[in-house]
Amino acid sequence: MLMRGTVRIAALMMLAAALLPLTAIAKGDPEAGKAKSTTCQACHGLDGKAISPTYPNLAGQYASYMEKALRDYRDGRRTNVIMAPMAANLTDQDIKDLAAWYASQDGLKDLSIP
Ligand code: HEC
Hints:
114 residues, mainly alpha, Cytochrome Bc1 Complex, Chain D, domain 2, binds heme C
């Protein structure tokens, strides 16, 4: 009984180790996202707080939400004349990095708009 449990745990650990590199690739890098966000700052602000009420705040937004939004703009599922061209040339990795960057910021504390 004890033996079987140990084998099962060992098998699970091997499975986890095998999957680890996949999750590492799939994750966004906030520092890379910061470097890629220079064009975004024009509207979404230096710190993810929008420069005017016309643009949404991104600081502290869920990464998964932003990834979906950006893929949807890029792939034509979400249309907006301003934002769609901004996402048109983003790679999947760009999207993950940008989302990780904005998600890493302090948000939802002061969402007042200038
Ligand atoms: C010229 C201004 C402008 C620039 C530059 C810009 N955006 Fe946007 N962004 C907008 C507007 C306007 C919207 C809202 C569009 C809508 O209603 O669908 C938006 C929406 C978004 C959303 C969805 C927010 C939500 O709450 O659904 C994300 C994520 C986003 N932008 C990320 C980015 C990123 C990343 C960049 C840089 C690659 C960028 N934006 C560059 C104007 C801009």
